[in-house]
């Protein structure tokens, strides 16, 4: 894990390379104040102040220089407007020439995060750190916690399934729980089979060393409002007997991306010391193929009591979440949030950048959408359309786990989950991609946190620290 603490420093007048931020509106006025040689260099680089993460280094004395960088709006910095600089500038200490980085400090940190666990040589590490000086020392710890949480998601999702099965995911949960002072309970074996039959059924084809389990973490004062965070922890998804094609299986190491989001959110809640009684639930399984695999047409009784017919073994994520939701309902939480890389249909509808958000409370949904815009972590509300509930009808059981039509796949999956949500609880379900197909400044190709910061922003406001 990258040591983000060392990349932000309190301004104590230390020597630092100035960074001038300009936008299309103010560039010409700013350029007129610069020496002639600066203007000539900017012209040679065809730098015109238009956004696009462009920047130019302006030389001064030996080993001294200033930086000018284009942003969309100098008055409203985004989290990512400094990320390209953090990725590209030489080792050293930097400071904005005017103003403070504010939310842009997050991109400065994440622009220097790399997942290099499987590289024999890492040239970037030899470049050294780029430190940003800020006059807002009170924001440093919170920004570092956010960067740590995002990096945790990225690192877990990027780790190959060979090295991140249910047992290793359990260890990752234990590591974070120990760090935040939380209690961990692991349900496995006969206790899982009898108490959480859907989780057990999905994972029953895996080898013994990759056996299924339910990870439950408790943190906080029992007298505080109970909040439950759930994450889909399918460490690899072959599709089961409804086997995925090779192209569909290639990225399935990321099918535990929901669990990574949930764990990261738990660390943020505890790190900020929000006054809640937190319950974290992660069903950790591998959806494999063997003689003991669950079959299409099988019927499994859920923890809640509903009998579920397995229409499609590749619709396994909603099965493990259903038993986790049933467990959550037994503790009567006032709010439930679940994250899952659940359906390809959500990606068809909204693409890779927008997590599909399903919420059973309009005010809660509006808060989440607003926060997503404010922190540049957008989410998009999708309907819990009751009429589609009939698509889950089974001829022999209480309901099926999938429909026979390709239409409204993400909505139908959410309607399945809704059957297991306790009455009276506010619930938000995020069908997130947890992946970035194309790199952007501060956001490399690979695992990524989508929707995490939006949810945390809402929880921080709903449960403010005293």
Automatic annotation (TrEMBL):
Native source species: Sphingomonas daechungensis
Gene3D superfamilies found in the cross-reference section: Leucine Aminopeptidase, subunit E, domain 1, Zn peptidases
InterPro entries: Leucine_aapep/pepB, Macro_dom-like, Peptidase_M17_C, Peptidase_M17_N_1
Transmembrane segments: none
Domain of life: Bacteria
Keywords: Aminopeptidase, Hydrolase, Manganese, Protease
Domain Cytosol aminopeptidase: 312-319
Keyword DNA repair on entry: no
Family the UniProt entry places it in: Belongs to the peptidase M17 family.
GO molecular function list: aminopeptidase activity
Pfam hit, one: Peptidase_M17
Protein name: Leucyl aminopeptidase family protein
């Amino acid at each position: 894990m990258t040591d983000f603490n060392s990349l932000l420093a309190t301004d104590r007048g230390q020597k630092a390379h100035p960074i001038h931020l300009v936008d299309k509106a103010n560039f010409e006025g700013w350029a007129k104040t610069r020496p002639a040689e600066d203007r000539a260099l900017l012209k040679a680089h065809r730098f015109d102040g238009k956004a696009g993460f462009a920047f130019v280094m302006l030389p001064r004395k030996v080993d001294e220089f200033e930086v000018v960088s284009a942003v969309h709006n100098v008055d409203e910095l985004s989290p990512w407007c400094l990320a390209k600089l953090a990725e590209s500038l030489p080792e050293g200490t930097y400071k904005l020439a005017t103003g403070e980085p504010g939310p842009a400090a997050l991109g400065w940190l994440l622009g220097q995060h790399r997942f290099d666990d499987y590289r024999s040589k890492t040239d970037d590490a030899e470049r050294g750190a780029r430190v940003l000086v800020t006059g807002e020392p009170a924001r440093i710890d919170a920004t570092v916690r956010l960067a740590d949480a995002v990096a945790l998601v990225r690192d877990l999702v990027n780790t190959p399934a060979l090295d991140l099965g249910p047992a290793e995911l359990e260890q990752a949960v234990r590591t974070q729980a120990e760090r935040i002072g939380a209690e961990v309970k692991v349900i496995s074996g006969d206790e899982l089979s009898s108490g959480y039959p859907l989780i057990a059924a999905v994972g029953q084809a895996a080898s013994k060393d990759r056996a299924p389990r339910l990870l439950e973490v408790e943190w906080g004062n029992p007298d505080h409002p109970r909040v439950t965070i759930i994450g889909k922890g399918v460490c690899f998804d072959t599709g089961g007997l409804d086997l995925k094609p090779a192209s569909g299986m290639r990225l399935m190491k990321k099918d535990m991306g929901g669990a990574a989001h949930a764990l990261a959110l738990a660390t943020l809640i505890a790190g900020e010391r929000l006054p809640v009684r937190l319950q974290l639930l992660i069903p950790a399984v591998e959806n494999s193929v063997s003689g003991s695999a669950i079959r299409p047409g099988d019927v499994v009784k859920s923890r809640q009591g509903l009998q579920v017919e397995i229409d499609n073994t590749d619709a396994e994520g909603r099965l493990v979440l259903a038993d986790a939701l049933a467990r959550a309902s037994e503790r009567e939480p006032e709010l439930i949030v679940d994250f899952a890389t659940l359906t390809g249909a959500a990606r068809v509808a909204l693409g890779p950048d927008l997590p599909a958000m399903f919420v059973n409370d309009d005010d809660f949904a509006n808060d989440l959408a607003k926060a997503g815009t404010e922190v540049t972590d957008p989410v998009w509300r999708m309907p819990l359309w009751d009429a589609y509930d009939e698509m889950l009808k089974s001829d022999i059981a209480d309901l099926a786990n999938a429909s026979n039509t390709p239409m409204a796949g993400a909505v139908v999956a959410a309607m399945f989950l809704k059957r297991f949500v306790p009455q009276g609880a506010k619930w938000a379900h995020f069908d997130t991609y947890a992946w970035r197909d194309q790199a952007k400044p501060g956001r490399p190709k690979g695992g990524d946190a989508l929707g995490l910061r939006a949810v945390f922003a809402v929880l921080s406001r709903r449960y403010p620290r005293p």
